[in-house]
Amino acid sequence: MSGDDEILTTLKILIIGESGVGKSSLLLRFTDDRFDQEMAATIGVDFKVKQLDVDDNRVKLAIWDTAGQERFRTLTPGYYRGAQGAILVYDVCSRESFRHLDRLWISELDTFSNKQDIIKMLVGNKIDQEANREVTRDEGDRYARKHSMLFIEASARTRQGVQTAFEELVKKIIQTPSLWEKKEPTIQPDDHDESSRATTGCSYMEDDNLLLNITSEPLPTKKAVKRKHDTVDEKTSQNLESTAKKKRNERVKLDLCQGKEMKSPKRSSLFANNPTIPEIDEKVIETATEEIFGSASSLDQMPVHPHIISCLKQKFNITRLTNVQEKSIPAILTGEDVIVKSQTGSGKTLAYVIPTIHLMQAIEPSVRRESGPIAIVLVPTKELVQQTYEVFQKLLTSFVRIVCSPLVGGSNRNHEKKRLRRGLNILISTPGRLCDHIDNTQSLSLKNIQFLIFDEADKMLDMGFADAIKKIIETIGKQMDPDKRFQRVLLSATPTTALSHFVDIILNKKALRIDISEEFNPESVITVPKTLKQMFTIVPSKLRFVTLIAFLLKIFNNKGKSEAKVLLFLATNDLVHFHYEILNTMLNGDKEDDIDEEGDLQFGHLLNEPVKLLRLQGDMTHQERTSVFSEFSKLSRGILLCTNVAARGLDVPSVTWIIQYHPTSPIDYIHRIGRTARLGSIGQSLIFLLPNEAEYVATLQDKYKMSLKGITPDDVLETLMNSCEKLKQHFETRTVIPKTAEQCASSLHHHFEEYVNGSPVRIEQARQAYLSFIRYYASFSREWKYLFHVKNLHRGHIAKSFGLKELPDESNNHTIKERKETFGSKPKVNKPIKTNDDEIDEEAAPSTPPPPPPPVNTEKKSLFDRLPFANKPVARTRFRNFSHISEFGSGLEVTSKSHKKKDKISEFLEKKRERNTSKHQIGRKKTRENK
């Protein structure tokens, strides 16, 4: 077995990994059987060839050693194509190199390799340095099994495991004939004669964008050459000439690495070059749960005023208490500080509303308007303020002398001041709005406060309200008598370490701690309702949007169960706005122009029956958000697109599905799914994850004891087959009906792209949504960067999920191509946006020439005048809005940082004014004396 004729096949093998892990040393040991202690770093790509005998077969290995440095990464993706195997190397003495496998190398390999079933081998190198080991063998083995890879530990220095690694990889490749077997093309005979099978003389070798054109004359066949003794009619001769000319113009694509003919992909670009979806082990986990309802004791036995019990039965239809209510109400009635931890949807609001009203109605002399504020309830969002206020109002119908009112940012401050002057007994507010009134409302007196309640305390701390809460507590302490004390009640579903530190500061050390599941501590297991079914799906970027549409069709086109309410969580306001317009059009149809000239279906109408879509986001006014929340609560069938403003505390009736299109921290995940399966009702949740985010599932399973079931994108996309009649493909005609789920998905995405790119306004909305998504992904804290790192994103695939055909430039609002063609190499602002036809949008760019630049003002400007928006009439309003600490419009201004230099200047100016004043007074005195 020495000649090339006896070689079974030629295989392309990649060696990838971080710089310094020993990739080149492994290759040198395998090919030359030597080790170089001072081997230089690989620049770009290194290449070696070696023959290997495996199982009585000889194969030729073309081994590509890629550079691990970041500056060379743009060179290596082109060498990934056509590889049958890959060796991923990490250093067992460097945990960082092990972490980067998941963050970068696996996703890069799956993205740029054109073979979906490429064989991967994970190699842990440098096991000869056992004393410095940071990654155990078990960790490597688990990681390899998780990603369906072979695994071995090796040492290039001692030869251990090097030969075995390559042999096992090649064996696995040989056992997968589809990777390397050459399929002979089947040639169909022509209707005329053998001349149609003439060999063409034009061949091309292609590697990415590299084309090598080799031209030669076509080889004539016997029948193609006209001789004296042959008789060929003119028609046959013309056909032969056209056939030969056509074949001369054909291109045969060859793989530079293997010399094979590259077949054109049959799959849609939507399904090509997607990263491999990792397999997730669905662990059997006993999820921590708590009983919603307590003992079967009657509501009449509760030690509160009879009017409250009667109101609970009539207004709330309650006949028995939940577990948290049964344990919290007696504890709060004792007057001691209380901390309550219980799952979302367990009835925590009534757990403090009932005892608060009971204790207030029992105060002597009786509480009236003139008594002023007696209780303060602090919550994080405007929606939760309104919801809590409505609960208080229902229970206070029997105690009309007790007055309750909400205080929220965005509402008229003068109207709130007027209500405060008239007298309010229960204030329900965000911390920021209450601090605003403490500073600006003289009629607000907190000297009679007896109850201070913190609902969703951990969320308020996350939003930066810690200083505001301390200010409220200090103000109460200053205004009330030193001999008096007030009761503090704190409630949360997800206690954190920061919350525990805050509790130690503001609450009594003897506070009663109530945890329905177990002992109260920051590391305690977070509970979820028993009736909640959690699911996840791992979807490549390009398929995310069509998978979302398919899943919504699965929910609302389900026969017999089409009555559903869905909360769809997205990351930012721009993403909510973009998806609201697109989903409304695709599901319910384009109301403006839904029928084309030929009468064919133009776009949308995928649902059998229309569904109401609403949106709730942070940049809406208070009135708009209240109206949307109220309308969605009354619906029996609808979709609410929202940001995290709807993740905490909101009790929306009959929500059946929670869809998290953009994931966030596990704590927010738990609060989001808590909007369904409330008070024993049935609910389901689904979270969308990218392939590089797969470890998020393991985090929920291992750390938070969540039980999730996986569903594949293929199962979801099968739903589109029910709508294939409505997904007519836009190719040569509009009468082609898709026959497979892939064709349906491709047609749906084609419709989507046509709609987005059909209007400059929609293109701009898609761009803003794309840029907003990139900013959201880059904003994750360092704690979660190993899962959500912006470098793991494939920008082109993300842009395609928004229907964009050009990748937007993240430095401004224009695509890279448009910036280069229209504005030159340097980015410029305030330029018109080009349409797909390379024509300037007339609305965006008026035909009149731009006005001359304004004259330069040489006068000295104040600090405010030098701001970029100072020349606009709304400048001061905008500057004031920027001072708000959150999107919820709390009204609390950010405390400015002290600057020593600024303080010294102010002090100097103050002294100078005093000296000038005293000099002026002395001068006037001398003048009077002289007179």
From TrEMBL:
Catalysed reactions, as listed in the record: ATP + H2O = ADP + phosphate + H(+); GTP + H2O = GDP + phosphate + H(+)
Helicase C-terminal domain: residues covered: 547-720
Domain Helicase ATP-binding: 329-513
Keyword Hydrolase: yes
Record keywords: ATP-binding, GTP-binding, Helicase, Hydrolase, Lipoprotein, Nucleotide-binding, Prenylation, Protein transport, RNA-binding, Transport
KW Cytoplasm (keyword) present: no
A biological-process GO annotation: protein transport
General function of this protein: RNA helicase.
Name used for this protein in its record: ATP-dependent RNA helicase
Native source organism of the sequence: Adineta ricciae
